[in-house]
Amino acid sequence: MSEDLSLNINIKEPRWDQGTFMGRAKHFFMVTDPRNVLLSSDTLEDARVTMENYRSGVVKPGLTEDELWRAKYIYDSAFHPDTGEKMFVIGRMSAQVPVNMSITGSMLTFYRTTPAVVFWQWVNQSFNAVVNYTNRSGDAPMSVNQLGVAYISATTGAVVTALGFKTLASRLPPIASRFVPFAAVAAANCINIPFMRQRELKFGIPVMDENGNRLGESPNAAKQAIMQVVVSRIGMAVPAMAIPPVIMNSLEKKAFMKRFPLLNAPIQVGLVGLCLVFATPLCCALFPQKSSMSVSGLEADLRERIRETSPKTTTVFFNKGL
C-alpha cells in the first residue's frame, strides 16, 4: 500500500552499493538496458513526475518500492543527471547497444577500401560526438559555434587517425588488418571525448561535498573524469571489435559462408551486439558515476576557498559523465 512506502528511500543514489564493482554493474545494466530506448514519452514523463513528487514528499497512490526504483532507472536512462533535461535519444547510454552494434558491425565488415573506412569512421565518430556531448559532466551550456568547432575537430582527428592505421595495416597480415577498426576507434576516443568536452577542461566541472553542496568548478576534476570515460569507452570497444574479427576470420573459410556471403554483415552485427550487451554496462561500471578526488588535488584558488568555507571537507565529488 502507498501509505506503507517509506519517504526515506534515498533515490538520489543508485539502488546498489556503488563502492563495489558488482553494485555498479547492476546499476548500469539497468541504465543501459536497450529496452529503455523504446519507452514512450508518456512513460518517461510519468517516471519524471513520480521522481519529482517523491522528492517533494508526495507518493502516488498504490506506488510500491520496486515501482519507485523502476521509475528512477527510467528517469536516469533518459534525463541528464546535472541539468535534468531529457537527453537526445541516440545519445542515451541505453541506445549504445542498438546503434553501436550497427555501426561497429559495418566498420568490421567494410574495412578494406579507403572510402568505406572514411565513411564508417565518420559515422561512428559523429555518433560518438553526440554521445559524448549528451553525457557530458556539468550544467554549463555550449554555444552552437563551440559545439560545431568541437564536432569538426573531433571527427576530423578521428578519421585521419583511422586512415593512418589503415595505411599501417596494409603492411600487416590479413588477420591484423581486421583489427584496424578497433585500433582506430581506441585512438579516436582519445581525441573525440576531450574535444567534445573541451569546455569542461577549460572552465571545470562542478564539485560537491559529501552532502551535495556545490563548492566550485575544477578543471582538474574534469581531467580525471574525462580520463576515466576514455578508459571505459575503449574497454567497451575491446570485446565488440576484437572477438568478432577472430570468429569471422574462421567462419569465412567455411563452405556455407562462401556460398552465402551476404550473411557476413548480419552475423557480424549480431556478434557485436552480443558483446556490447555485456561490455557496455560492465565498462561503465569500471569507475563510479559519482567520482571523487582529494581537495589537495584541486586548483590552488579553489583549494583555498574550500578550506575557508568548508574546512572539514577533505574529499570532493563530481559527476564524471559517461
Word description of this protein:
This protein has 322 residues and is mainly α. Strands 1-2 form a two-stranded antiparallel sheet. Helix 4 packs across helix 12.
Give the end-to-end Cα distance, rounded to a whole number of Å. Answer: 36 Å
Q: Name the strands of the widest sheet in spatial order.
A: 1-2
> What is the overall number of helices?
13
Radius of gyration, in angstroms, nearest whole number: 22 Å
Catalytic activity: L-serine(in) = L-serine(out)
Keywords: Amino-acid transport, Membrane, Mitochondrion, Transmembrane, Transmembrane helix, Transport
GO molecular function: monoatomic ion transmembrane transporter activity
Organism: Champsocephalus esox (pike icefish)
SSE layout and pairings?
Layout: H1 21-31, H2 41-55, H3 65-78, H4 96-109, H5 114-134, H6 144-169, H7 174-177, H8 180-196, H9 198-203, E1 205-208, E2 214-218, H10 219-251, H11 255-259, H12 264-284, E3 290-294, H13 300-309, E4 315-319
Antiparallel strand pairs: 1-2, 3-4
Helix pairs in contact: 1-12, 2-3, 4-5, 4-10, 4-12, 5-6, 5-8, 6-8, 8-10, 10-12
Descriptive key words:
322 residues; mainly alpha; two-stranded antiparallel ribbon; two-stranded antiparallel sheet; 61% helix; 6% strand; membrane
